[in-house]
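re: that chain from earlier
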Amino acid sequence: MLNNMFSSNEHAEKQFFKCTYPCVGGSPCGHVGTVGEYTEHFAAHTSLYRIKFGSCGARFVEEAMFFDHIDRSEKSRTSEKCLVEKRQNINNDRDSVLLAYRNRNMHLLLARREDYDKLRT
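^ sequence. v structure.
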């Protein structure tokens, strides 16, 4: 499965994953997204982020999402912009990071594009 995700075939379809992390009441989360979206999404369950903005409070796991946030901030019409200088790195303890990493992999199921599209409409 992972070999297919990272193949050199640029025309290959994206793969989608469903989060089965137990929510309040015990029912599975059900979020569907790409690998990158799932990584950011799972941080909402664990509260383990790597980067925080001092100005707006947004938190990120992946640096790509951090820079995307900056780009969107620059295009926005609000007076307060998120600048790279306002970045704060978050240091999480080793055990929490390892536990979250293992849990993330345990609560990941392959999903269909239709599941993804249904949640986006």
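The beta strands are 16-19, 32-33, 51-53, 59-60, 87-89, 108-111.
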